[in-house]
């Protein structure tokens, strides 16, 4: 995946690597870790039953080589992400305080490949006593693993995780045919509330 | 506003104040600033025309005493936020790298009161070449200032800001009667896409 592609904006800032190592605040639980967030958060009571041969864990820095982006590409446009961009995005997500990005993956133990992924993103607020709301994003299961209810597994994990994080609500966007699927996790179509969007990339639907 | 109310979660972490002062990475443009983000981002071409006697600026740490929370309370439940919680939330938003929270306010110059507010939140992604999507949140104008098109002003600012930040899309949720209002800024109801939600606080609608 070349050439390097960085997101750029006037406020995006890459600290000097040395000073980052010395000074960047990393949550104590992830300091020095290669997991995106403390893997102990995905305790048994959050993860529930996982089929034999699989495990649910946080995204890992090495998942660049383990098919995570290939799985995401079955959902929408991934574009070009070289290793440097990958590491920068991963570390910037990992460094958030309070923690904001909970990318969970399903790993096939034999192959160590990522075969499913889903993200809980928290938005920290002033409202609701400086609370947070959660959003479920980028839920996808590898085509080779469909029909095994891994989507159910991932969604169950994310709802339990959102509750544990203390969000006052969790939401997602889904197309018409997926409404019954998501209702099983407790979501309801918000009567009278509408999702409005405008796109600037000219082609994508996600 | 007492007693102190903190959001708490297993991963929320308050760094030691001294080490935070020395080490927390603050975007160069906001380092030492009391604005939430670099105020030069709200350049004339982003802000557009502002009625006499008002200005649009980033949220400021002193807005705790200038009516910002009172304005928000006209939108939804604010709850109890003491000064310590306020400062913690403000600084955690300010510290995000890449910048994530763009809370813009309308200030009445004579009174120095906040009379309107709106937030652009960025979610940083792996998809779309490690791009970002934007969301417009918590748009509200003080009841004393309604009818002056300050909601239009704030929404225009946020759409231009989102474009400048390079998001691949920007979205919002709104109730049925506000769809025509938001269409003027370029938003469209996403045909076949639905907003699903579940709430854990037992009462709120936002």
Automatic annotation (TrEMBL), chains A, B:
Name listed for the protein in its UniProt record: Glucosamine 6-phosphate N-acetyltransferase
GO molecular function: glucosamine 6-phosphate N-acetyltransferase activity
UniProt superkingdom: Eukaryota
Zinc recorded as keyword: no
Region described as Disordered: spans on this chain: 1-25
Gene Ontology biological process terms from the UniProt entry: UDP-N-acetylglucosamine biosynthetic process
Pathway: Nucleotide-sugar biosynthesis; UDP-N-acetyl-alpha-D-glucosamine biosynthesis; N-acetyl-alpha-D-glucosamine 1-phosphate from alpha-D-glucosamine 6-phosphate (route I): step 1/2
Taxonomic lineage of the native organism: Eukaryota, Metazoa, Ecdysozoa, Nematoda, Chromadorea
Chain ranges of the N-acetyltransferase domain: 59-206
InterPro entries for this protein: Acyl_CoA_acyltransferase, GNAT_dom, GNPNAT1-like
Catalytic EC class: transferase
EC number(s) from the headed UniProt entry: 2.3.1.4
Signal peptide coordinates: none
Similarity comment text for this entry: Belongs to the acetyltransferase family. GNA1 subfamily.
